[in-house]
Design a protein that fits this description.
Number of helices: 15
Radius of gyration: 22 Å
Strand order of the largest sheet: 3-4-2-1-5-6-8-7
Bound molecules: 2'-deoxy-thymidine-beta-L-rhamnose
Order of helices and strands: EHEHEEHEHEHEEHHEHEHEEHEHEHHHH
Strand content: 15-25%
Distance between the termini: 16 Å
Structural class: alpha/beta
Shape: globular
């Protein structure tokens, strides 16, 4: 039997939940599917604890889902024996004493720099390239998640799509999910909303409230908090106690673990997502979604959106493609009037968008998942 491998993952939380969410998802998949002993060194356990409820917010050394979580502050002095592989999450840097120990090791760990996900074509040429460290006799390998076979792929747990289909067939499980949020879903368009602060949101809520269709929109507590507060005039919904205006029921959801978040996406007809990890989960949900790209200087995020849309819409007819583009664009530039105006055409296009989303998910699922490609790559370097 091959020896059990040990991996360290190092994560610094820039903001929000994506840095921690991606690193934790990778960590637990390595442990569950590849039998790897994983330590996640993280500088902000409290952020991670929001989406890993079994983890105490103040923990400095704890185990959840088969992953050991340790405070990054202690890594420099207490990293112990070096692992076989170290993953530097999003190029966040490894503690200097750790790098020094690597440089002194007879067989240093394989050093992976896990990069941000992008659909831009240049990713293909940059993926899995080595880069000699400028200061130490060490090599870093740059690992790019992506959408083609020339990239590292996407995080996708074994059996994920089977679980999704079983959940979709399970009326009782779906009904229970909506019941806990205190909403009646009969004949409603079910929307899950996870976005950044967005000036277009109140206008969209107006359109839904004043429209002909019953819309149930679920937003995690605190997300787009200023907009929700202003739009409800302070009567913000709480879990189990939605806010109703006109045809819109606005429900608040507690933060839940990543699997429960997936089930919410699977139960919804339209998912607003953001960042990186929820963006990928919406694709595995095989349902229409609207991506709020993490805002960047010089509108770099709009180029990312364009690159992704160009891939997603390949198999779409002209009308749904244009409707999707117009709505995503208005949403991402935060143009309230444009988003309100674009909604009707996008709503009409949802059945076509749903078919395309299903085809897209099936296309992606034919590619190997990121954890597997990464494990195989590292094993070839050991
Ligand atoms: O939270 P995000 O916006 O995170 C990030 C960071 O901002 C980061 O700096 C940036 O570089 C990156 O985006 C692109 O969005 P994301 O990536 O979707 O992460 C959210 C995580 O939270 C994801 O793992 C899903 C999880 N989650 C839950 O598990 N339960 C919940 O209830 C919710 C609302 C989210």
């Amino acid at each position: 039997m091959p020896p059990t491998l040990r991996w360290d993952i190092v994560c610094r939380v820039v903001d929000n939940f994506g840095d921690a969410g991606v690193c934790f998802r990778l960590a637990r998949t390595l442990a569950a599917e590849h039998g790897i002993v994983v330590t996640l060194w993280i500088d902000d356990v409290a952020s991670l604890a929001r989406i890993v409820p079994s983890l105490p917010a103040g923990a400095v050394d704890a185990v959840a889902d088969g992953v050991r979580m340790r405070a990054l502050a202690s890594c420099a002095s207490d990293h112990g024996e070096l692992p076989d592989v170290v993953v530097e999450g999003f190029g966040c840097g490894l503690p200097e004493p750790y790098v020094r120990a690597m440089a002194a090791a007879a067989r240093p760990p394989v050093w992976i720099v896990l990069e941000y996900l992008s659909a831009e074509p240049w990713i293909d040429a940059s993926h899995a390239l080595p880069s000699p460290h400028p200061q130490w006799p060490l090599v870093r390998w740059f690992w790019f998640p992506g959408f083609t076979a020339h990239t590292g792929g996407l995080l996708r747990e074994a059996g994920l799509l089977t679980r999704r289909e079983a959940f979709r067939r399970d009326d009782a499980a779906r009904a229970a999910l909506w019941r806990t949020l205190g909403v009646a879903t009969r004949d409603a368009l079910l929307v899950s909303l996870f976005c950044y602060a967005n000036p277009a949101l109140p206008a969209l809520l107006d359109v839904w409230a004043d429209g002909d269709e019953h819309v149930v929109c679920v937003v995690p507590v605190g997300v787009a908090g200023a907009e929700v507060d202003a739009w409800t005039q302070g009567a913000v919904p709480h879990p189990g106690a939605p806010f109703v205006r006109g045809r819109l029921t606005l429900a608040a959801a507690p933060f839940v673990d990543q699997d429960a978040f997936d089930r919410r996406l699977w139960a919804s007809a339209l998912n607003f997502v953001r960042g990186e990890d929820s963006f990928v989960r919406a694709q595995w949900a095989a349902a229409p979604f609207v991506w709020h790209v993490y805002p960047q200087d010089a509108d770099a995020h709009l180029a990312k959106m364009d690159a992704f849309l160009s891939r997603l819409e390949v198999a779409m007819d002209a009308a749904p493609r244009a409707a999707q583009r117009a709505f995503w664009y208005a949403w991402n530039v935060g143009d309230a009037a444009a988003a309100a105006e674009a909604w009707a055409a996008y709503r009409a296009a949802l059945p076509a968008v749903e078919r395309a989303s299903g085809a897209w998910a099936a296309h992606l699922a034919a590619q190997p998942d990121l954890t597997r490609t990464l494990v195989e790559f590292c094993e070839s370097k050991l």
